[in-house]
Amino acid sequence: MARRPNPKLSDVARAAGVSLATASRALADPGLVRRETRERVQGAASMLGYVPHGAARALATRRSRTVGAVFPPVDNPIFAAATQALGHQLATAGYTLLLAAHEYDPSAELAVTRALLERGVDGLVFVGMDHDPELFTLLAQAGVPYDLMWSLDPARFHPCVGVAHRMASVRATQHLLELGHREFAVIAGHTAHNDRTRERLAGVREALAARSIELRPERIAEAEFALPQARAALRLLLERSPGFTALVCGNDVLAIGALAECASRGIAVPARLSIVGFDDIDMASGVTPALTTVRVPAAEMGRRAAARMLARLAGGAVAHVEELPAEVIVRASTGPAPR
Questions:
Q1: CB-based burial of residue 28 (10 Å sphere; 0-12 exposed, 13-18 middle, 19+ buried)?
Q2: pTM reported for the whole predicted model
Q3: What is the rounded distance in angstroms from the CA atom of residue 231 to the CA atom of residue 264?
Q4: What is the rounded distance in angstroms from the CA atom of residue 68 to the CA atom of residue 12?
Q5: Cα separation of 102 and 116, whole Å?
Q6: At the fourth CATH level, which superfamily is domain 9-61?
Q7: Whether the Cβ atoms of residue 337 and residue 179 lie closer than 8 Å to each other
Q8: Distance from the CA of 334 to the CA of which of 24, 122, 197, 311 falls in 20 to 30 A?
Q9: What is the dihedral of CA 57, 63, 66, 69, to 10 degrees?
Q10: CATH match for 165-296 among 3.40.50.2300, 2.60.40.10, 3.30.70.270, 3.40.50.620
Q11: Where in the chain is the domain with CATH 3.40.50.2300?
């Protein structure tokens, strides 16, 4: 069989010796035809260089075999791990992941969601609980299934897979309290439009309040998730209210930036200052000292989100709320409070 420019499905059917309908079923829904026929059609398509027309197939099947994911900036390593796992798991089932980002801007998130719906995605995945209410109205009108990653809906209204950020932050703070620390500071991410940041900060306050310790406002700094901003946040805290011996950071990027600033200032970690991160990105165990942090199973979350979406697209049922474990990983960046 020789290749020809722009081969059509009719060419594949003729080469395989089957009807046009059979060739279509063999390529679009292989489970509906016998293995021998399926292999003959797929072999003919491969030899001819036939590529199904996505728009035509979507029109015929009412399925585009695409899933949209709307993420905050994916340059955060924790999101990159989840995105890769999500895309890989979908690909094994014959779906393509379409990725969009919104920079923690609800209006931008709404706009890119509209664009993905206009492209006919079969389902959508979002991050967190903070969204414009119009987003869910739009999804309901479109009749497209969705799932929320990373966070757990306390009202159990939205389908979601994630971790309990507040409780994980409580446990990380308790680790520092058990080491004897009583003077705390926090470098948090920006709390606007980010429920994960707010929950992690609330967890620190909750753990301290249980020991009758106040987290003073001047010992809280918000920063973008970037090393230079983290270093600047630590400088601000040291200038504004020195004397703290424990620093809780909203994620590992902020904590690693704080470690870098400590190294440049000659602040011994953990002898003078203990530092805790959140996420357990790959770099957390490779810095010096290795970072104590909360392990968020980002890749597993991506795989679970994909599995949940695939099950729903196939007409199956999934748990409405699925919680994944988030454990404290103790490493060398935390130690006893200085005397």
A1: middle
A2: 0.81
A3: 10
A4: 31
A5: 13
A6: lambda repressor-like DNA-binding domains (1.10.260.40)
A7: yes
A8: 197
A9: 150
A10: 3.40.50.2300
A11: 66-163+298-324, 165-296
CB atoms under 10 Å from CB of 267, counted, come to: 16
Give, in order, the Cα–Cα distances in Å from 288 to each of 192, 229, 262, 263: 32, 20, 11, 10
The conformation of residue 189, written as its DSSP 8-state character, comes to -
Q: Is the CB of residue 288 less than 8 Å from the CB of residue 255?
A: no
Torsion angles phi and psi, residue 120, rounded to 5: 80, 30
pLDDT in tens, the chain (339 residues): 555 556 788 889 999 999 988 988 888 777 788 999 999 998 988 888 776 654 445 444 456 799 999 998 766 788 889 999 999 999 999 999 999 988 888 899 999 999 998 888 999 999 999 999 999 999 988 889 999 999 999 999 999 999 999 999 999 999 999 999 999 999 999 999 899 999 999 999 999 999 999 999 999 999 999 999 999 999 999 999 999 999 999 999 999 999 999 999 999 999 999 999 999 999 999 999 999 999 999 999 999 999 999 999 999 999 999 999 999 999 999 999 998
Distances in Å between the Cα of 188 and the Cα atoms of 43, 44, 65, 251, 318 are 56, 57, 38, 8, 33
